């Protein structure tokens, strides 16, 4: 199946927003949840589910191939995470050598081991460990979904999300002993977005659903606008006791509803208004999303060190210029990965030609 350019575009757009949020921090970023309580991370995880379904559903009749390819992808994601960990703890080790303190080496070593086990997540390194787990579960979910059990899969996923809203699972005592960080996203809650993406992607591959009446746009726009106004403090709509339902870690109910309304509104707007959504550069980034995302995390970690100095010596113009250069530099990992894929493709083509010649004259 040919790549869906609109999906690459939205993945690239999510990557740009996430990069800006990470570099400037959510408190200062103008792109942090600009359309309400739905974040770019929500869109990124949901789109990951859609693209996984489109890329791997064709192998459901060959379970061995399906499991192998999904787990290979999971391994690639894990290795990307490990590369970030190596750089992160390498820098930590250098800082520790420059200013040693009692017990710091042991704590850092413990954190590194727990990071490799996907338990401890250093700052900004939350999504890839979650993505590793989702891809490992994807083969089973895709088989069930393609057998027509998508409703059961979706309900089971929703039930898991619902239980997490009421069940607080305390971390073991050694979490505090080693100062372990469980991350900003609870996989047991955020899995619902990925599963919803898997189901949506599978349905999309079969045939588009009959869209609801165009008046649905107006109906959806009202709550989306109201949540946007509340999020930015323009109008107080949500009472204080409902604000916990907008929290990110467990993907609170209002946050989930906000994302569902917003995603549906965007989809229907493109459909009814015949919007030509796309940009070659943004699509290019989305096409190589894993490499770009991994690089963006590294970029954010470096920015945390250098940006205060840029702000101090050059002010807002310097920060703006640095941010623009950082966004342009996202093209580097995308370009390198595209060249690598071309070389692999050429190598495989030559290997096949060689095998054909060998068989012909054997």
Q: In terms of topology, how is this protein built?
A:
Layout: H1 5-24, H2 40-56, H3 63-98, H4 104-116, H5 127-166, H6 173-177, H7 187-206, H8 216-231, H9 253-272, H10 280-287, H11 289-328, H12 331-361
Helix pairs in contact: 1-2, 1-10, 1-11, 2-5, 2-7, 3-4, 3-5, 3-11, 5-7, 8-9, 11-12
Q: Encode the helix/strand succession as letters.
A: HHHHHHHHHHHH
How far is the first residue's CA from the last residue's CA? 35 Å
| Share in β-strands | under 5%
| Uncertain ranges | none
Number of DSSP helical runs: 12
The radius of gyration over CA amounts to 22 Å
How many strands, which pairing sense, and closed or not: the largest β-sheet? none
Can you describe what's shown?
Helix 8 crosses helix 9. Helix content is 73%, strand content 0%. The protein is built from twelve helices and no strands. The model has no long low-confidence stretch (mean pLDDT 90). By secondary structure, the protein is mainly alpha-helical.
List keywords for this structure.
mainly alpha, 12 helices
Concise overview:
By secondary structure, the chain is mainly alpha-helical. Helices cover 73% and strands 0% of the residues.
């Amino acid at each position: 199946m040919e790549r869906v350019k609109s999906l690459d575009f939205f993945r690239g757009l999510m990557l740009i927003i996430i990069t800006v949020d990470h570099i400037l921090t959510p408190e200062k970023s103008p792109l942090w949840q600009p359309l309400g309580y739905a974040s770019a991370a929500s869109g990124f995880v949901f789109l990951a589910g859609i693209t996984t379904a489109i890329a791997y559903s064709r192998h459901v009749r060959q379970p061995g191939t399906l499991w192998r390819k999904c787990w290979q992808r999971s391994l690639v994601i894990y290795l990307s995470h490990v590369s970030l960990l190596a750089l992160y703890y390498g820098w930590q080790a250098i800082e520790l050598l420059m200013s040693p303190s009692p017990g710091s080496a042991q704590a850092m070593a413990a954190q590194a081991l727990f990071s490799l086990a996907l338990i401890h997540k250093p700052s900004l390194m939350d999504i890839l460990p979650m993505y590793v787990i989702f891809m490992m579960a994807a083969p089973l979910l895709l088989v069930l979904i393609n057998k027509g059990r998508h409703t059961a899969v979706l309900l089971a996923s929703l039930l898991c999300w619902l239980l997490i809203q009421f069940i607080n699972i305390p971390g073991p005592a050694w979490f505090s002993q080693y100062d372990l960080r469980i991350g900003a996203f609870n996989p047991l809650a955020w899995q619902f977005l990925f599963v919803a993406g898997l189901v949506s992607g599978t349905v999309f591959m079969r045939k588009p659903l009959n869209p609801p009446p165009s008046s649905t746009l107006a109906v959806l726009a009202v709550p989306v606008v109201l949540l946007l106004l509340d999020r930015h403090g323009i109008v107080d709509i949500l009472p204080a006791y409902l604000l916990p339902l907008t929290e990110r870690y467990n993907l609170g109910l209002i946050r989930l509803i906000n994302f569902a309304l917003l995603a549906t509104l965007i989809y229907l707007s493109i459909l009814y208004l015949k919007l030509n959504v796309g940009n070659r550069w943004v699509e290019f980034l989305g096409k190589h999303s894993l490499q770009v995302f991994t690089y963006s995390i590294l970029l954010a970690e470096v920015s945390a060190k250098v940006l205060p100095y840029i702000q101090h010596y050059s002010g807002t113009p310097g920060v703006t210029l640095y941010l623009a250069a950082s966004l342009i530099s996202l093209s580097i990992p995308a370009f390198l990965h595209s060249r690598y894929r071309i070389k692999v493709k050429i190598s495989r083509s030559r290997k096949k030609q060689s095998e054909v010649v060998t068989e012909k004259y054997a």
